[in-house]
Amino acid sequence: MVPHEQLSREFFAIAPDIAYLRTVLVNVVFIGAPGAGDRNWVLVDTGVFGSHDSIVRAAASRFGEGARPAAIIQTHGHFDHVGSLETLAGEWDAPVYAHSEELPFLSGQESYAPPDTAADGGIIPKLSGLFPRSPVNVAERLRALPPDRRVPPLLGWEWIHTPGHSPGHISLWREVDRTLVVGDAFITTGQESAYEVAAQTLEMHGPPRYFTSDWIAAGTSVTNLAALEPKLAITGHGRAVGGPRSIEALRQLADGFMQIAPPAHLAS
């Protein structure tokens, strides 16, 4: 278990320069030193619709009143990760970075495929047909991450293409301390179960079943991330994890991915 310093009710520091806010359904990650000030930190993902106020409050408490991010980085464009993106990007006049294959879902051009409402694991897949699939539009501020894998506002970090959950899904990696911001490439709670989401039951899972479009690619992504042996991993859903037990759990997930992760009607 990673030590969590509780900054407020749902806001936790897990490293000197990393904190995350648990919004409804999903985590939002803040990278930057406390008190960093204006344009000296980065926001990763923007939660569900209605998360704006809690994100702004958390940013002010962490970095200083009125401190805007140098950039917003989107791991992908699913509704629970972009709910406040248009509002925050406009209010903060911040560039938005994402993988080139994810840009159509962030520029108003393309909707995601329908969810798999037959996925097992709980009530949420059955409700997923009601979830928004239409793209947001931040085209004016949208930029593709550079092909050399740099993350322009974040020295020492690189992005890793981790497709499967979505075509342009990315994770962020810092080699010096083996820290991984995962997005939904893998998660640490059973996102299909309303009970597990509420209780934050700590388990290693593949990406959310109802919105994952390519299970072969998703398995390759998990295998690649497991090979990094991250000392600290913060996922889009569930608690941050770290240490030898989490490395072993991630390795086991990778080794048995196609038997463990996909919906039962697709598992091999």
From TrEMBL:
InterPro entries registered for this protein in UniProt: Metallo-B-lactamas (IPR001279), NDM-1-like (IPR050855), RibonucZ/Hydroxyglut_hydro (IPR036866)
Which SUPFAM superfamilies would you find in this protein's record?
Metallo-hydrolase/oxidoreductase
Domain Metallo-beta-lactamase span(s) in chain numbering: 25-237
Which domain of life does the UniProt lineage start with? Bacteria
SMART domains the UniProt entry points to: Lactamase_B
Which Gene3D superfamilies has this protein been placed in?
Ribonuclease Z/Hydroxyacylglutathione hydrolase-like
Question: What is this protein's record name?
Answer: MBL fold metallo-hydrolase
Species in which this protein is naturally found: Rhizobium helianthi
What lineage is on file?
A: Bacteria, Pseudomonadati, Pseudomonadota, Alphaproteobacteria, Hyphomicrobiales
